[in-house]
UniProtKB/TrEMBL annotation:
The chain crosses the membrane at residues 21-43, 49-72, 84-104, 162-183, 231-257, 277-295, 302-321, 327-348, 360-382, 388-410. Keywords: Membrane, Transmembrane, Transmembrane helix. It is a multi-pass membrane protein. Its main location: membrane. This is Major facilitator superfamily domain containing 4Aa. InterPro entries: MFS_trans_sf. The keyword Transmembrane applies. Gene3D superfamilies: MFS general substrate transporter like domains. It is found in: Membrane. One of its GO terms (cellular component) is membrane.
Amino acid sequence: MESLSRNVGLTFPPFVSSLSSLLSSLSALLTSTLIISVVFAIIPLCHHVVLLAVAMGVAGAAMGVIDTIGNLQLVKLYQKDSAIFLQALHFFIGCGALVSPLVVDPFLAEDSCVLSANRTANSSSSDLEHLRNTLAGHGAALHNASWYPLYTEGVVVTRVSYAFWIMAAINLPVPAAVLALMFHERLVSCSRGSPPLLDKESHTSSSPTVRDACPGCGGALDFLRGHPATFFIIHALGGAIVFITDGIIGCYAGFVYTYAVSPPLLMGHKAAGCLDSIFWASITAGRLCFIFVSYRYAPPVLLTVSLVGVIVVQSLLLIFYTSRVFLFIGTCVLGLCISSVFPSILAFTEDMLDYKGAATTVLVTSASTGEMLLQLLVGSVIHSEGSYSFLLSTTITSIISLCLFLLLLYTHHFHRNYQPDSSGAIDMKEQPTDGGS
């Protein structure tokens, strides 16, 4: 479900900064998790595509809020050690993307999900065949596609509605846990004599990091004032890197099946269908491994190895494009390499910017936007140029991401040199005051 949520609604996280000034993070998480369960419960009842689109948009917006707040709070709480916890967070995101298709699979029909009331309608069959060939694109005719006739009218034999209801029920313990945490922190007081613990801490503590975690709360102009140009360049470069890398994840997960069943591979539908699960399984395993690797190596080292590995694997996939075996091997290695890019670049960017908090929102928004737009662009290229352009497009974009990362390191060098000057200026400004006293 993770990739689906990003595609339809994760471009909403820019609103999280303003939302956090009105509600606490726990309240926003409680509301968003409840919305997801409600939407998944009503999706099977949406009998019109417009209603389904609205429901998926609402679910995507709620998932975007959860994604942004989760990353932001981990960065705020753990700061220098946030890379480890971010790897753990995205490991569980990968687990969800891996497990959810397994929940849905038992409820899918083996053949057509609709038994046609009139199977002799030659005109309808020819129209649907033309539609299938059009969607497949030039040079990408699906292998054995005629095995699966498409019918739009008749008796529905699939029970996929149960899968959505099961997912809604599985999600219910999450808002229950958030609500229990709110009671534990006395954010939801049952009596007038128990003031909220967080309110008590906010009155006694004047730590600037609490204010920095919500940069929009003090006004956009106050936050933007006094920062060098490298501050904004780092935001832009970090966002561009995750725009590309998360876009590659979305493209590969979305189009590897189409690539596998198209010439020259012409794989069967069952074998090709395993590629997406293998890809997400390798991403999940990679994030689990990088939890422990993050203890020993800094994010720049992990990012360099990961981005170079992505380019090497995709280049080999281009060379051995006729090998079915290497497609499976390359899918596994690609998932392992690209799995740690987002949490590592988030930890590295926030570390460069002294954990101001704004970078988290920028990166999450850029990642979700890239996963949505790059799929649209690559899908258009596949439609016009054929399935081979799928790997060529993702390889070119991965090379661009490595170049942007090298530029980020170069910008970080100048930004780091700026910091002693700014601190020295503050010391010189305060020195006469100390001397006068």
